[in-house]
Design goal:
Elements lengths: L2 H8 L10 H7 L2 E9 L5 E9 L9 E5 L12 H8 L3 E5 L17 H18 L1 H6 L6 E6 L1 H12 L6 E5 L15 H11 L12 H4 L3 H9 L10 H15 L9 E6 L7 H10 L5 E6 L12 H19 L3
Parallel strand pairs: 3-4, 3-5, 5-6, 6-7, 7-8
Antiparallel strand pairs: 1-2, 2-4
């Protein structure tokens, strides 16, 4: 594919495929933009923003969003920040290392700790360098984290790294601890760890494609599968070992979570375990915390369910954000 055609294909989104993104954003009554951000370790990371249409009014809050494993911020993911921007929230996100249009071998995450640093660097850049928000009085605008699946784990790690930097967090089907039902049995983790020392990038971990297990609606499975940025290969050894390490680390620090917290999860999720989300909310020391378990819903709560179900989850999240924003 020629470079010009490749670039064009990245601008065609699931909402029809025959409209340019800026025209679509205008139709939706928001302002959208994209750019590249260079992290302190020199990675070129693709970023997006979705803002309320009126630049003279302060947003209700800034929402810093983190996608899940194998996903990116330019296809089905952005339906949620578009919805939030329509309701007065300024949203920002980046493709993580090895995902989407950011630098790195596809789906290879050798260090989640460094990914956390990348995210914090970009989020702090938005907080400290954006002249629009400085003019509007940034210190008065609440700031929330928002993470889906693996992004939920990264959101918690960001909070633990910067406990005063954010005013709340929304976690969607978070991968914050490996369920005992899903955790590989001894000696598989030990074997993976040894092999990963020598062949970390090998995409050989035997798992099924998670997309069909995440998305309920058949038509939406077809849409998700069209995403040119979606990773379709087997998980890489180094990534799997790192995620096992990070979730084990998080499971030991859940009692240190103090941020106002909303967790949403589907009872029919077989990718991440809703019982683990219940344990997270129970163990977290947050004074303000809640969880909603949606009966029968699957992993992709904000895209893969029926439009009616997606609307239910969206509005629950919006209600929670609106209520917290009133406190500031």
């Amino acid at each position: 594919m020629a470079e010009e055609e490749k670039e064009k294909s990245q601008n065609l989104y699931y909402w029809g495929g025959d409209i340019e993104e800026q025209d679509y954003y205008t139709q939706q009554g928001i302002k959208g933009s994209s750019s590249f951000f260079t992290s302190p370790r020199g990675l070129k990371l693709f970023t997006r923003s979705w803002l309320p249409q009126n630049p003279n009014n302060p947003p209700r809050a800034l929402i810093f969003m983190i996608h899940g494993y194998g996903n990116d911020i330019s296809w089905t993911f952005q339906a949620t920040p578009i919805f939030l921007a329509q309701n007065g929230y300024a949203c920002f996100a980046l493709d993580l290392q090895g995902h989407g249009r950011s630098d790195g071998l596809k789906a290879f995450v050798p260090s989640v700790d460094l990914v956390v640093e990348d995210c914090l660097s970009f989020f702090n850049f938005i907080k400290n360098q954006n002249p629009q928000f400085q003019k509007l009085g940034l210190e008065k605008i609440p700031k929330f984290l928002f993470g889906e699946s693996m992004g939920g784990a990264i959101s918690l790690l960001i909070h633990l790294s910067d406990q005063k930097g954010f005013d709340g967090a929304v976690l969607v089907a978070p991968m914050c601890r490996i369920s005992e039902k899903l955790k590989p049995r001894w000696p598989i983790p030990q074997i993976l760890t040894q092999f990963a020392k020598f062949f970390p990038t090998l995409a050989v971990v035997p798992t099924e494609d998670l997309m069909p297990k995440s998305v309920r609606v058949e038509e939406k499975k077809l849409v998700a599968d069209r995403n040119p940025m979606r990773y379709r290969g087997k998980p890489r050894l180094g990534t799997v070992v790192e995620l096992l390490r990070v979730t084990e680390y998080l499971s030991l620090r859940l009692k240190e979570v103090k941020i106002p917290l909303m967790v949403v999860h589907g009872s029919g999720d077989v990718v991440t375990d809703p019982q683990v989300s219940l344990a997270l909310v129970e163990e977290a020391k947050s004074e303000d915390k809640c969880i909603k378990i949606y009966d029968g819903m699957m992993h992709s709560l904000l895209f893969g369910e029926s439009d009616e179900n997606v609307e239910i989850v969206r509005n629950d999240i919006l209600s929670w954000l609106n209520h917290r924003g009133l406190r500031f």
